[in-house]
């Protein structure tokens, strides 16, 4: 087994991303947010693409990670840690395919990302999400994150979308 791959259970593995995963992360976010939340505008799609490519273009393997969840050799989720500064990291690009939701896969992927933060000495992690992502918000809350900021965003194809910043000290 590759040193960057950990067998979790039931055919699940979590590994570091490769260049082949970039399209999966972008398309997965486009499809999920369009299908489940109505985010269809070109502004939204560009936001996702720009954010992922910026992460890849400036990726620092010593301070950052993008993890890919696999089930039976197919990519089924993603999560990333972005370096903000020596003490702070941002959790990004969290995605679990619908067929794995509610089965613990999200917890495993999330915990792997937080373990990376602890190993790298980060003291604080923050993330941005939407008020309508109920399952993700529940996960964040159970893991110790708290809402610290909110604002409305109407540019991404849905009215009254509320973005939330969540923060947690490690």
N-to-C order of helices and strands: EEHHEEEHEHEE
Count of DSSP E strands?
Answer: 8
What is the name of the CATH class?
Alpha Beta
What's the helix count? 4
Query: Which range does the strand content fall in?
Result: 25-35%
**What is the H level of CATH, i.e. the homologous superfamily?**
Gcn5-related N-acetyltransferase (GNAT)
CATH third-level topology: Aminopeptidase
- What's the CATH architecture? 3-Layer(aba) Sandwich
Q: How many strands, what sense, and barrel or not for the largest sheet?
A: 8 strands, mixed
> In total, how many domains does the architecture comprise?
1
The low-confidence runs, each spanning 5 or more residues with pLDDT under 50, are 1-8
Indicate the overall shape: globular
Backbone structural class = alpha+beta
Integer-rounded radius of gyration: 15 Å
Mean pLDDT: 91
Helix content: 25-40%
Kindly, what is the distance between the CA atoms of the first and last residues, rounded to a whole number of angstroms? 30 Å
Task: Describe the strand arrangement of the main beta sheet, using strand numbers.
Answer: 1-2-3-4-5-6-8-7
What labels would you give this structure?
single chain; 170 residues; alpha+beta; Aminopeptidase; globular
Plain-language structure description:
This protein has 170 residues and is α+β, with helices and mostly antiparallel strands. It is 33% helix and 34% strand. It has one domain: Gcn5-related N-acetyltransferase (GNAT) (Aminopeptidase), CATH 3.40.630.30. Strands 1-2-3-4-5-6-8-7 form an 8-stranded mixed beta sheet, with helices on both faces. Helix 1 packs antiparallel against helix 2 (42-57). Residues 1-8 have low confidence and may be disordered.
